[in-house]
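Hey,
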Amino acid sequence: MDEANPYAAPTGPAVDDATVLECFARDVAAGHSTRFNVERPTLLVDRNVAAAVRIAPRTVLVRADLPPDLTPAKGELEAALATEGLTCLDEDTLLATPVALQLFGLRLSSWDLWGDDIDDGFAALRAGCIAEQRGPFEGPSPF
């Protein structure tokens, strides 16, 4: 637990980075590592930077404009998604901005659309733009 900020402490068992990313890519419950944790549906880096958000079972938005010190995390995440059979369907997806705004309040962020089917991916993205979204920290813990 982070004694300086107990409200930012992740849940679940401590695991390595690769396990957190693999579990996020497979959409299964994961623990947390020193760099990554999952607060469904969001993958966080350094406990408070949204790096990806799952918008459907096989569709993920990956943040393209992570801060420079977190850029390596994007490559690691993309490798985990690719291992699970997902590909980048669209870069700098314009419809991702309304989703990011609803979920995180990020007005000027850039996101890539990842999935295994382009039609399903864009359908999930369109639905996310108009639907009332759950917040990134709502719902029961998977642990």
